[in-house]
Design brief:
CATH architecture of the largest domain: 3-Layer(aba) Sandwich
CATH topology of the largest domain: Rossmann fold
Largest sheet: 5 strands, parallel
Structural class: alpha/beta
Pfam families: DNA_pol3_delta2 (PF13177), DNA_pol3_gamma3 (PF12169), DNAX_ATPase_lid (PF22608), DnaX_C (PF20964)
Catalytic activity: DNA(n) + a 2'-deoxyribonucleoside 5'-triphosphate = DNA(n+1) + diphosphate
CATH superfamily of the largest domain: P-loop containing nucleotide triphosphate hydrolases
GO molecular function, one term: DNA-directed DNA polymerase activity
Protein name: DNA polymerase III subunit gamma/tau
Oligomer: single chain
Strand order of the largest sheet: 2-3-4-1-5
EC number: 2.7.7.7
Helix content: 40-55%
Shape: elongated
């Protein structure tokens, strides 16, 4: 039983008019053939499946067609048919991945000296050219520079950076662009029409997106779907549904993706876990679902930043409208943080962690920033409080999460004084909290049955707007050194994503003075190397930006070196003296229920 050519081989473009995309390559080669300005060597660069080999064969057909040289080869003459079937004696295809030695290049160099057999030109197509060794390139260099008449070399590669510069200089280079989703969809629809395959637009869009810019992958998956539909009992296998595409590709349904992001937007961890459970029940690959979630979050980010659905991610009008609607509901900070969490989950899965656990952890952290101790999660919580206050929401329930300090702060015990919560400078959120204080203390002072107290409350909200709308600059001016010491661990967490080395070095330092905007950060004398790194201008800028993001103070850090063991910082608890030998003995006796044995001394 003979095997039929694959779908992408049967529908490979035969003329320049059949090529989808790559207009800059088509126009240049058309003009070169028409004006008889052919170069002896071309370098085609592009990712897999973008049409590099097909373009080389079209060029060979244009030159060796019975009507050639022509930009419209007939496709029916012996030369065109033999080129299409890879049987032409004048078009030699060579895989450099398996023929990359000096001996292989010598054989090619010897064959170049022979004249064309039946056509006008000999065309050598060298695929995966970057796989040639340096010695093979050197053996081939002279032939490539001065080939015999009517000989053309086409070098195709996916990694142009691995090709010797001396080779690139001798070629005309063309960079093949990845086709867009729309271009892939148009090719799939054209092929489906010729093959009598009934496939809905949504399924075509899924195939086009999953192909990631490769015509060959798109047509190969379409052929696999035809076989799958036949095995499923559809008889001729010409009907393909969206469910078939989801089953073969293992990608998540759009409803699952939108539902997961809706749960994140609503900060509903329970709904997020239900979305993960629904995925698990489908039996699809969890790793692929995480990647699909990452792609969906990226699309939301693009729509939010651009204000509309760009053409590169547009699929169908219904889905595009749903994507734009969701992008308007989900906070931008939630989307960016969700992408970071998914990237961390993918790294953990690559290191061997359980895929479902990492997926659920990312969804729960994204839906409930309160359970995430990172600085980014704290910033998300602050942004939520700012939005709630701007909308006129009650500040009281949002006040506890607004404190970006890992240590517990006794804010609930200090209700009556108008001072801000300890450990954090008064930001707009913190300043709004004292406003309800007069209302909270007034009712306990009077009896609930009295008729006189009701008139005063309507007048109480009058001073509230000025307090809630106080500028951030005022809050930043009230930052004290104890406040900065308390948020110092969060400052290190904020520095770490930008400069890990600086964050590690700052663990051995601490603020010792704050005068206006000048923050003095001291290193111990035993860490002078870390102090020099932190004292670089770019690192001081990173540190100042982290302090500003967490406290609102536009700080100007300065780096100094001190003996921290003898330095007393206001607001910082003094370091306990080191234990004496007697203290160590007492501790050992207590921990191990031991008994001290005192050696006997010799009597004189």
């Amino acid at each position: 039983m003979s095997t039929a050519p694959s779908l992408y081989r049967r529908h490979r473009p035969r003329t320049f008019a059949d090529v989808v995309g790559q207009e800059h390559v088509v126009r240049t080669l058309r003009n070169a053939v028409t004006q008889d300005k052919l170069h002896h060597a071309y370098l085609f660069v592009g990712s897999r499946g973008t049409g590099k080999t097909s373009m080389a064969k079209i060029l060979a057909s244009c030159l060796n067609c019975v009507n050639g040289p022509t930009v419209d080869p007939c496709g029916v003459c012996d030369s065109c048919i033999s080129i299409q079937n890879a049987q032409s004696m004048d078009v030699i295809e060579m895989d450099a991945a398996s023929n990359n030695s000096v001996d292989d290049i010598r054989e090619l160099r010897d064959s170049v000296s022979f004249a064309p057999v039946s056509g006008k030109y000999k065309v050598y197509i060298l695929d995966e050219a970057h796989m040639l060794t340096t010695a093979a390139w050197n053996a081939f260099l002279k032939t490539l520079e001065e080939p015999p008449p009517n000989t053309i070399f086409v070098l195709a590669t996916t990694e142009a950076n691995k090709v010797l510069p001396t080779v690139v200089d001798r070629c005309h280079r063309f960079d093949f662009q990845r086709p867009t989703v729309e271009q892939l969809a148009s090719v799939l629809q054209r092929v489906a029409g010729r093959e009598a395959i009934d496939i809905p637009p949504d399924a075509v869009a899924l195939l086009a997106r999953h192909a990631t810019g490769s015509f060959r992958d798109a047509l190969g998956t379409l052929e696999q779907l035809v076989t799958y539909a036949s095995a499923g009992g559809d008889g001729d296998g010409t009907r393909i549904a969206v469910e078939d595409v989801l089953a073969v590709l293992g990608v998540a349904d759009a409803d699952l993706l939108f539902g997961a992001l809706d749960a994140v937007a609503a900060h509903d961890a329970r709904a997020a876990l239900h979305a993960a459970a629904a995925l698990a029940q489908t039996g699809r690959d969890v790793n692929q679902f995480v990647r699909d979630l990452e792609g969906h979050a990226r699309e939301l980010m693009l729509v939010q930043m651009l204000g509309s659905v760009p053409a590169e991610i547009a699929v169908t009008p219904d889905r595009d409208a749903r994507l734009a609607e969701q992008a308007g509901r989900v906070a931008a900070a939630d989307v960016v943080r969700f992408i970071d969490l998914l990237a961390a989950a993918l790294r953990a899965m690559k290191d061997g962690a359980d895929a479902r656990t990492q997926m659920e952890l990312a969804l729960v952290k994204a839906a409930t920033p309160e359970v995430d101790a990172s600085a980014k999660a704290l910033m998300v919580r602050l942004e939520r409080l700012e939005r709630a206050l701007a909308a006129g929401g009650a500040p009281a329930p949002a006040a506890p999460p607004a404190v970006p300090v890992p240590a517990p702060a006794p804010a609930p015990e200090r209700v009556s004084p108008p001072a801000p919560a300890p450990g954090l400078p008064p930001t707009p959120m913190a300043q709004a909290a004292p406003a309800p204080a007069p209302q909270a203390t007034a009712p306990p002072a009077t009896a609930p049955q009295a008729a006189a107290p009701p008139p005063p409350p309507p007048a109480a909200p009058a001073p509230q707007p000025p307090t809630a709308t106080a500028p951030t600059a005022t809050a930043a001016a009230d930052v004290t050194l104890p406040d900065l010491l308390q948020v110092w661990p969060a400052v290190l967490d904020a520095v770490a994503p930008t400069n890990t080395q600086l964050a590690v070095g700052l663990r051995d330092a601490r603020p010792i003075a704050l005068v206006g905007r000048e923050v003095t950060v001291a290193f111990d004398t035993s860490h002078q190397f870390q102090s020099k790194i932190a004292d670089q201008a770019v690192n001081r800028e990173v540190l100042g930006e982290a302090i500003r993001a967490l406290t609102g103070l536009a700080a100007r850090p300065t780096i100094e070196v001190h003996d921290l063991s003898e330095l007393v910082v206001p607001g910082e608890a003094p370091a306990a003296p080191p234990p004496s030998p007697d203290d160590w003995v007492d501790r050992i006796k207590h921990e191990f229920d031991a008994e001290e044995i005192i050696p006997e001394t010799d009597q004189p």
